[in-house]
Amino acid sequence: MRTGTNKRIAVLQRLALAVMVMLASIAGAQETEVLTIDGTLIRGDQEMPTVMYLVPWQPPEVQGLERPDEKLMVQTSIAPLERAEFQRMLSYHRQFEAQHAPLDEDETRDQ
User: Fold this and answer.
1) Contact predicate 100/67, CB 8 Å
2) For the chain, first and last CA: distance in Å?
3) 65 with 100: CB under 8 angstroms?
4) What are phi and psi of 21, to 5 degrees?
5) Residue 76 above 80 pLDDT?
6) Domain range list for the chain
7) HEC per residue, 39-103
8) Which residues have CB under 8 Å from 99's CB, separation 6+?
């Protein structure tokens, strides 16, 4: 009978050990890590960005280039010129003349 009782005690011990292991695993599974996340802080009316629109109350003044005085062009001293420099000056002059030509000439050029 002692062997039967010993077997029962051994079975009960194993059963108790199995129950304790199961309870320990369940208790460990229930422990979850607490995460803290910083939230968004809004003070007053800061949810909209600060934007400033500048709207002119008057149209801008258009200032055109005026033709240089003819006397200033004649009074320049005579000095030798390099070919490349002279050609560059001619191209500037042609561009200036094309921009400031009268409207009648522009209309005839387009046709």
Assistant:
1) yes
2) 128
3) yes
4) -65, -40
5) no
6) 1-30, 81-110
7) CCCCCCCCCCCCCCCCCCCCCCCCCCCCCCCHHHHHCCCCCCCCHHHHHHHHHHHHHHHHHCCCH
8) 65
Give the residue carrying structure tokens 């522009």: 106
- Give residue-wise pLDDT tens across range 6-43: 888 889 999 999 998 888 877 666 656 777 777 776 66
Q: How far apart are CA 107 and CA 101, in angstroms?
A: 10
What is the separation of C-alpha 17 from the centre of its chain, rounded to a whole number of angstroms? 63
| Residue 96's pLDDT band (cuts 50, 70, 90) | very high
This model's pTM is above 0.85: no
Separation of alpha carbons 97 and 107, rounded Å: 15
Give CA–CA dist 100/92, Å, rounded. 12
